Amino acid sequence: MFNWRPIPFVRLLLPLMLGIVVQETLQWKTGIWGIAGTLVVLLLLSSQYAFRRTARKHRWIFGALSNLVLISVGMLLHFFYQENNSPEHFSPFARQECSFRATVMELNPKGDNYQLVLKVNYMGQDTLFSSNGRLLAYLPQDSNSLQLDIGDQIHARSNLSKASGPLNPKGFDFAKYLHTQNIHYRTFIRGDHWQKIPGVSTFSVLKMAHELQKQCLFILEQHLPTSKERAVASALILGYKPGLDEEVKSAYADTGAMHVLAVSGLHTGFIFVLVQWLLQKIPFRNKTWKIIKTVLLVWCLWGFALITGASPSVLRSATMFSFIAVGQAITRESSIYNTLAASAFCLLLTNPFLLFSPGFQLSYLAVAGIVYFQPLIYKLVYLKNKLSDYLWKLFGVSCAAQLSTFPLSLYYFHKVPLYFWLSGMIVVPAAALILPLGLMLFAFDKVPFLGWLIGKLLYFSVRTMNFLIFHLQELPGTLWSDVWIGTFAFLLIALAISGVIFIIETKQVRWVFATLICLLMLSGWNITREWETTHQKEVVIYHQKGQTLIDLFDGTNSYTFSTALPEDKGISFSAGYYRQYKKAKLQGFFPLDTALIKGDHFRYQNGIFQFYDLSFFILRNHSILPDQKVALDFLLITQNSKIDITALKQSFDFNTLVLDGSNSNQTIRKWMEICTRENINCHNINEAGAFIRSQ
User: What is the pTM of this model?
Assistant: First the structure.
């Protein structure tokens, strides 16, 4: 029988997580006070069993009541943390242009704009009312916005809107992402529609962290002359990533080293080990020193969190390692799994939405995986040579982290770097050197010669790491990409890995059979997917602002027709995820200006498209309407074509009128009014999303 004694917080964490997931799924509002009343009743009932001796066969009642209490707590935490459930939330003003006063909580450059997270204080029309809630805002970068800082207050006027879901199939769900950040509305503020309120600035720890980070970034700028090295050092040491270009991001992502550019568990772990090692050199062994050592260790962890800008990932890892430090101080036999569960439990009590953060999920899985799998991998081979033994340990750490996070990484990112073990041997030692050098540079920058010397060593270290990573990316077979798994496949892979753990721990045959069943079901799922992609016949008209973008999926082949150029990055953003999902190889890219396009099963000429038995017409500004009436499945109107919607019925007999993103919203509104009046079935891609028709 499984023993919960060494890991009581795991037993508490699981029902709390379940309650948060249930409330996230149900979004229960009207019955939440019923949940609160049920919680009170459950607490009273469970207290009856907690403070009196009960027969062994009845102990399950207390356990069941305790789990129900924690599930109820999770639901209530989620409800009250979600800001738009508050009666004072600004959402009633969101359907119209409004004025508001807000405090800057976060500030990041995004292209030509600044992306701000604002804490709304007042909102209204002519009169401002006390309100609350967080708002995502965009400001143009100009001389005024450059003066903004965290803690400043602004007064602005603009239209607020809910973030929309993906308009293209399998696209990134920005609305869902914002929801997990507890942000439910956004706004684009014109440069002349806002002003900073002079003399009003709120002090916060985040503001102090931001100021400290800016000073450290300035120091790095003085010592690192090249942009790539400066950007990588800023990300690795300070968690500041706006300077990273696509080339650097691609190289580190493709080699499995991207985690080193996001200050999180790895970096905080280095600080933890380094400070702990230094404190152990001090020859004190009494209880008072043990307490002082723990306080100093925790203080250094949170000091590092402030230097790195106090991002959510570093705050999370600082909390996790603080619990580990306290756990080590309390008892020598504390379970690392219990300590991890305790830190996760406390973090979820303060912010239940963390449970839906990929960073939160991956960081805890990685640490737990390293703790469990790395010793097992290390024991497989015994090496006498110290260097070989060290490299084998690094290999074990990389494999353990990759194994534990593999299902989730595949689910979120749809790719697997195959040289993660090799990149780990590069970036882990490099980070262990670069991070202390960076901190030393911040401390001794003003010291003559010493600051210069540390800066040179730091520059050489970062440049060497970049050199190795970029060359590693060029090796053949670096990346297993375009791998798309759904929720069902993710659960099967996760269950199979869990089955392996149970086999190791219990040595029971039943877990072997359970694991094999999961693998067989996964094989069946994969065979089904292969059959579906082999026999697919589908037309997809994507949403792409200002352009027409069409994909034909014919089995494992795909063909693209567009007004955009092949190198247009918008194509990948609009269609990339769905192309991965469809598992089809691109066989041709055709401009819509081409007079005649012929394929094995499609033909495009004079605006008329034939794909198997599916036919449609692409109406553009210079299109010539046929003399005789043509029967179509649907009609696509593009480029704000100057046409009479009702007159189209004389040339075409169609089922659906499709309006894509190459048309302006103003023109589409006029067409939609006519379609409503004439009872024409219309699909507006700008609102309803991509148009998909299967053969």
Answer: 0.85
